[in-house]
Amino acid sequence: MRIVFMGTPDFAVPSLQLLLASGYEVVAVVTQPDRPKGRKKTLTPPPVKEAALSLGIPVLQPERMRNPEAVAELAEYKPDLIVTAAYGQILPKVVLELPRLGCINVHGSLLPKYRGGAPIQRSIINGESETGVTIMYMAEGLDTGDMISSVALPILDEDTSGTMFDKLSLAGAKLLGETLPSIIDGSAEAVPQAEVEATYAPNLNRDDERLDWSKSARALFNQVRGLSPMAGAFTYLNGEVFKIRECEPVLGRSGNAESGKIVSADANGIVVQTGDGMLLLKEIQPAGKRAMAVGEWIKGARIEPGTKFGEGEER
């Protein structure tokens, strides 16, 4: 059994580690190229690359897996099976047909719901009460292959994308360990996905991060935690970006206050009127500054009566 593992972020590391701990022969790891990161744009290797090198596994980093040179280099490792987890590229047919046992993917949703690159974030943003991991055979479409196994996990109010990434990465590794024997001995039963039930989770963009105060407090709460701790949800305050890192919904309405208006602000938090209910901001990140508790920021801030979030544009 010669396995090639493909993955890029932290989510994929436990699955790689599981393969090694279970005694499987991982002959190579394929991951995305090193990318600039942080304000200083320091060239940084993906977490999977760091894990693979620490385990003594050869690492391939093609810019595009569709390039003939990349396919030829991969073929030299003669994989019996390719295992992917959040690799970040759609594999071409020539790669899918390379291993005799096929290619399988550890996907962070309960397929056919939330196909695509941001299933965990969007399941939280959309207010889902559960998500999970599906192990599937890979096909040429976007997460369209037949399903082999799955496990469901609840999404709690205290969960963020960060906590669910951690939970699902561990659950995915465990499920991979339980599923691999049946794939290897040919007893795995794959079930086609119901296309009529399919939904999509495209990668997030700037518009997904901007808060619309006319929405309900609950919807904004889901949006904030679905974007935490990565990019973070943002609004504008006095024409500058103002990120919301942690918040919670508050029932009720403050008179005839407009959506986005600050109802109160003290060391306990900033209360903002929304389209339905109020939102208590607990941790924020003003433009050009680090994330901090509202109580820390409020000491030096001046909030004029009638101040509203969301007005103006970036300077």
From TrEMBL:
Read off the Gene3D superfamilies from this record.
Answer: 3.40.50.12230
Any one of the GO CC terms? cytosol
Q: Where does (6S)-5,6,7,8-tetrahydrofolate bind?
A: S109, L110, L111, P112
EC number in record? 2.1.2.9
Q: Which UniProt keywords apply?
A: Protein biosynthesis, Transferase
Which ranges carry the Formyl transferase N-terminal domain?
1-178
Q: Which Pfam families match?
A: Formyl_trans_C, Formyl_trans_N
Q: Which SUPFAM superfamilies match?
A: FMT C-terminal domain-like, Formyltransferase
Q: What terms describe the molecular function in GO for this protein?
A: methionyl-tRNA formyltransferase activity
Its UniProt entry gives the catalysed reaction(s) as:
L-methionyl-tRNA(fMet) + (6R)-10-formyltetrahydrofolate = N-formyl-L-methionyl-tRNA(fMet) + (6S)-5,6,7,8-tetrahydrofolate + H(+)
The residue ranges of the Formyl transferase C-terminal domain are 204-301
Q: Briefly, what is this protein's role?
A: Attaches a formyl group to the free amino group of methionyl-tRNA(fMet). The formyl group appears to play a dual role in the initiator identity of N-formylmethionyl-tRNA by promoting its recognition by IF2 and preventing the misappropriation of this tRNA by the elongation apparatus.
Family to which this protein belongs: Belongs to the Fmt family.
NCBIfam families given for it?
Answer: fmt (TIGR00460)
Record-linked HAMAP family: Formyl_trans
The protein's name:
Methionyl-tRNA formyltransferase
